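Aim 2, interim progress. The first record below pairs a target sequence with its C-alpha cells.
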Amino acid sequence: MEIIGKPLNRVDAKEKVTGKAKYTGDLVDSHALIAKVLHSTIANGLVKSFDLIEAWKVPGVIDIVTCFDVPDYQFPTAGHPWSTEKKHQDIADRKLLNSRVRFYGDDIAAVIAENEIAAITAVRKIKVTYEQYEPLLSVEAAMQPGARPIHEEKPDNVVVHSSYEIGSFEQAIQEPGLIKTEGDYETPIVQHCHIENANSFAYMESGKIVIVSSTQIPHIVRRVCSQALGIGFGDIRIIKPYIGGGFGNKQDALTEPLNAYLTTRVGGRQVQLEYTREETFSCTRVRHAMKFHIESYVRKDGSLAARSVVAYSNQGAYASHAHALVANAVNGFRMMYPVGAIKGEAYTVYTNMPTAGAMRAYGIPQIGFALESHIDDIIAKTGFDPIGFRKQNMMKLGYVDPLTTITCHSTGLAECIDTGEQYLQFLKKRELYAKQTGPVRKGVGMAIFNYKTGVYPISLETSACRMLLNQDGSLQLQMGATEIGQGADTVFSMMAAQTVGLSVDKVHIISKQDTDVTPYDTGAYASRQTYVSGMAVKKTAQVFKAKILDYAGFMLKKDPVDLDIQDNFIVHKNKTEHLLSVGEVALESCYSLTNSHHIAAEETHHCTDNTYSFGVCFTEIEVDIPLCQIKVLDIINVHDSGIIINHQTAEGQIQGGMSMGLGYGLSEHLIFDQKTGRMLNDNLLDYKLMTALDTPDLHVSFVETQDPTGPYGNKALGEPPVIPVAPALRNALLNATGVAVNSIPLNPEKLFVAFENAGIIR
C-alpha cells in the first residue's frame, strides 16, 4: 500500500481546528504563581543596586529575585547538540539574571506573585541604579578601536572571525580579460512572529524540577537548564505539549532556565513565566542583520573565474547560536556557485542589540539576498542571459564540497528553473519590461538556492524512535523529534504506516515530548526531521515489522521470511489472501498463556550523511514610482526536495515560507532608538507583517528527485521556501526600473531614497 506521496490530512488537524489541542498556556494550574521579569531600561552598563521597598509592599508578592541572588553559573542557550569537545561547545556567556547589562531589555530581576496584576505592579515599583555606558548598536561601533568590551572575554567584541580559500583568489584575478563586479548588500533585523509567545511553567515533583514549555528542543533545554542551575540532567524533566510555532526562536532555551530556578525559590510550587508579545519581540531572539561585500570576476564566456565575500553579522548582546549563522552564510556563498577560486571571510560581533539566534533557513536568506542580487548585478553589467549564466555556474550533480564533504547526491535545479520560467514566461517578459518608461512599471525577477539537510558533519545528527503494538493491532509511535506546526507528526505517521504495512489510521503518534520517557532527538531545526528522524522511523518500523511477522509465523507455523503485512493483514509475500489480521497477532502475543510476548521496537539512527535541496523563485511585480510602492502580481516557488512525503502539507509549508519571504523582502524590519537602543516597533501593529490583503496567490510546484540518502528519497523542505523570495523581488525591481537596491526591506522609505538618488523622481 503506497502512502508516501499522498495528500493526506494532518493527523493533528481535528484537534487544532476544534480548539481541543492543549498548548502550554492551556495546561497551567489555576493556582499557579505568576512570574514577571524586570528588564533593563539601558542598553549598556552595570546594575549597581535595587530599591525593593515599594515592590515588597504590593499585596500578593511571594518573592523578588535580583541578579545578585541567582547562582553564579554562565551557560549557553543555543539549541545545538552538545559536544564533549570544548571547541565544539556553544559559548556560555549569560546568567539567569545579569548585573552586566548588555542590551535594552536585559533580564535583571524577577517577581513571583499570587497573580499577574501583583507581579506586574511589583516589577514596575522596583527602582534600579545603573552605571551607564554608551550603547554600541552597530558592528562598526563595536569594532572601533577602544570600544568598551561587551563581554570581557572578547575585548575587541569579535565573537569569532573565520576565513577560507578554495584555490588562489589573487592568482585567479590576474587572468586577462576578466570582468569585475562588486557590491555591498545588507539585510535587516527581523523577528519570527510565531503565534504563541515564549511560555513555560515549572514545578517540583519527586525531587525533580519539571518544566512544561513551548520549545522546539526539549532534550537540549533539559541540558541547558542543568548547566544553568548546576544540577544533574536527571534532576530536570522537560515536557513539550502542542506548540504554536517557533521558526528557530524556540531553538534556544528562553524562559525555561530562569523558571526552573524560580520554582525552587517557592518550595516547588508551580510558577508560570509567560512573555508578552512585546517581550517576545525584544527579549527572546531575532534574525541576524548581516552586511556583505562581494567581488566577482567573470570571463567573457560567462564562467566565473574568482569570487570573494566578506560578511559581518550583528550578534547582539549574547552568543546564542553565534558564528554558526554567518559561517553557514559564507559556506552557502561557496556552495551555490562552486566554480573558480573562492574566498570567504566572516565576522560575528557582539553589540548592544537584542540577541540574534536561529531563524528559518539559518543565515541562508541573508546570503541568498546578497548573492542572487549580486548575480543580477553581473547580468546587468555583462548582458549575459540570467538563466544561462546561473545554469552554467551553479552546483551540479556529484559536487563534493571541499570543506564539509557534503555531496550533491541528487539535483533537479535545472528542471526547477525551466518549470518556473515556463510558468511566468520570464525571459519574454524580462526583455519586454526592460524597455519601459512612465510612472508605473512592471518587472520580473528570479533567484535560486540550495540548502543542506540537517547539520552533519558540522554537528552530531542522531534520532531515536519507539514503537509499541497495541492489543487491537494499532501502533503506538513515540518520537523525540518535535511537531511544531510543520506537519512532522503527519509524515512520521505516514512513514511508519507504509513501512510496517498498516493504514495511517492505525498509527497513534504521541505529539507530546517528555524527556523522562521520550526517545532522544535533538529537535526541530535545520530541516532535518524527515531526513534524520525519518530514518529512525524507518529503521524502527523494519525491526517492529519483523517482530510482528515472527510472532505471526509462530501462530501460523510458517517461516516468517515468507510472510508480509499489507493493509493491516498478514499475507504470503506477493499474495493478497488474508491469513491473520495484525490485531489477532497483537491480541495473542499479549495474552497468550503459553507464549506471551510484548511486541515493541526502539532504534537509533546516527546520521553520517547530508544532501542538498534546491529551488527557485520567479516573481512579477508592479512598481508605482511616484508612490514608491511595489505590488506583487505573480509569484511561484519551484522546489526539489526529493520525494515529497505529503503533497498537501508540503505545499502549505512552501506557501508559509513564501509569505515570510515576502515580508522579509518588502516590509519587515525592527526599528531602534539610536541613542538608547530601545526597540520602537515591538508589537504586531507597528511591525509590518504581510497581511492577507498584501499577499498574492502563492503558486507552488515540485520537481521530485530520488535522493539515495533520504529514508524515502526525501530531503530538506521546511526552511528553504523563505530563501529566494526577497532577492527575486529585488531583481524584479531592477528589471522594472533599472535601480539596484542592495538592502531590504524594499519599503516606500527605502525606495524613495533609491529613486531620488537615481534621478527617476524629484
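The second target in this work package is listed in the same format:
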Amino acid sequence: MKHTAQWEKEFADRFEARFDELKWLYCEVYNNDMQAFYWLTGAMYEYYQKRGKALKKLDRERERTPFWYSTNDLVGMMLYVDNFADNLKGVKEKIDYIKESGVNYLHLMPLLKSPKDRSDGGYAVADFRRVQPELGTMKDLEALTAECHRNEISVCLDFVMNHTSEDHAWAKAARAGDEDARKRYFFFDSWDVPFEFERTVPQVFPTTAPGNFTQLENGDIVMTTFYPYQWDLNYGNCVVFNDMVCNMLSLCNRGIDIIRLDAVPYIWKELGTNCRNLPTVHKLVRMMRIISEIVCPSVLLLGEVVMEPSKVAPYFGTKEKPECHMLYNVTTMASTWHTVATKDVRLLERQMQQLADLPKDYVFLNYLRCHDDIGWGLDYDYLSGFGMNEVPHKRFLNDYFTGKFEGSPSRGELYNDDESLGDARLCGTTASLCGIETALASGDKKALKTTVDCDTMLHAYMLTQSGIPVIYSGDEIAQLNDEGYHNDPDKKADSRYLHRGKLDWKKAEKRHDKKSVEGTVYQTLLTLEAIRREHKVFTASADVSVIDTANTHVLGIKREYQDEKLYAFFNFSAEEQPAYFDGILSGVDLISGEKIRGLSEIMKPYGFLWLLCDDTK
C-alpha cells in the first residue's frame, strides 16, 4: 500500500503524479510483485530524506527550468581522476583550471572500487558505495561535487549497470554457492543454454574476450558479455533492479548531476535474441527516469548507446514517456574521422541532415575523442554507392590512422584487431590522429601548422553541432599519445591506454603562449567557446540544415535562431578549397571580425569559417 500520508508533501506530490505509470511498468516487468514494488518505493523515500538541503534546492531550481542542459553555454570535459590530478582532492584543487578552460560540465571517468588487475578502466565495479582507495573516499567525492556546484559546474559519473566485477560481494557469494546471490547473475551448470545464446548473441570483443560466457574453476558457467571478470547482472530479478536503483540514488545523493548509464542496451537478456536493445530495456530506463524525477529531479540520465542512429534515438523515449535526457553522438564522431581520412564530406552531410531532422529536444553529447576506441560502424549501404565497401574501407581507415597509408601523418594503434573479419578499432589522441605528433617529430613547421589547423577545425566543427560539446582531457592542449603504457604489465595488453595518459601539466603551462602548439589550440578553443556562449544561434533550439558548398571537401552547415543566421564551413582537405555561399551576400566572420561579401570564399587547408549573415537575397 502507498504511504503518501506519512511522506513529506514535496515527495508525495511527485510520487502521486507518476505512481500509476511506475506501478504499471514494474508489475509488467516483474510479474505483479507488489511486495518488491513497495520495498522500492519505500527505499526511494529514504533516499529522498537523505538528500542534502543544497541538492534539494537544486532539484527545485531545475524543476522550474527542465531543459537547462539544452542551452548554448555548456561545455564539457571528461577526465580520469588519477590522470588529471592524482586523486579527488587534486581535482578539487584544479577547479580554477577547469573553469579557465570554459568547462562547466565535468565527467569523471569510473572511480568506484575495482580490482587493479581486472578493472577494465574502472568498468568492473567491486563496490558501488566505495571510491577506489588511491583516488579518495566518498567524502572526497562529495566535497568535490559541492565545490563544483559552488562554481556552477555540473558533475557526471559513470554508472556501470550491466555487470559487476567478479570481486563484488554478490559475485563472491554466488561463487560460494549462495542461491539468492546466484540469481543475481546468469549461472548455468552445463553449456546447453549458453550455446543456444551464442547462436544469436554477437561477441563484443571477439579477439581479446571471445564468447559471451566464462566457465569458472568449479565448472559453473556464468554470462560475461564483456570480459570474463565482468559478470552480467540479471535484471529479470527484481532484487537486482531494486538494489541497482539504490546504488544509483546513493551516487546522486553524493552530488552527481548526470548519471551515465554504461552499456545500457545490453541490460536485458532473452534467449533467441541478440540481447541488444530489447523492448524491456526501454521499460527499465523509463522506470529509472521516473524514479529520478521523484527522488532527485535535478539529475539527468545520459545513455551510452554505441549503435547505429536507428537504434540510438529510441533511448530518448517519447515526449509523453521520456527515457534518457541525453545520448552520445557516436555515429557522427566516427563519421568525422572517416571524413578526415577520405577528405570527402558526403557521409557527414547525410548524417548532419539526419540529426537536424530529429526533434530539437533530443540533446546529444558531441565529442571527437573519449576514453574508448573508435569503431567504424558507418553507413556502408550509403558509402558503397561511392565505391567504399565495408571490409576494404575499414582496412583503409585503420591503415590511414596508423600511418601505414602513404602520405598519412596520423599515429594511432589498433584495438581488437580481427584479421579474419578485416575489422579493428582505433586508438589515439585527437592531436596524434590529426598528425601533430608526426609533424613535431619531423620538425616540419609547415606540416605542424597544417596538422594544428586540422585539430582546431575539428573542434570548431564539434562546437557547431547542436547539443553539448565535450572535450577529452588533454585535447585542450593537443596532448600526444602516451607510448609508456607498453611498459606497464597491467596496461600493455589494452591499446586504449594509448590515449589514457596522464595530463602533462608542464605542457599545460604553455597554454597562454600562442606561439606554442599547446597555446594555439587552447586559446583557439577559448575563443570558440566564448563566441558560442555569446550567440543564441548555437542553442539546441536552432533550426539546422546542411548547405551544398559545391565541393565534396567542404562541409557547410546553416543554423538559424530568432534573428540570427550562421553559416559554418569546414575544409576537410589539406589543400586550399573554394566554398560557395548559396544565397549569401554579406556577413561577419565571428573569428576575425572581418566583413565578408560575395558568393564564394577560398578556404585555407583545414580552414573553417563561422559567418554570421547580415544580408541575404
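The first helix runs from residue 9 to 29. This observation will shape the mutagenesis plan for the next reporting period.
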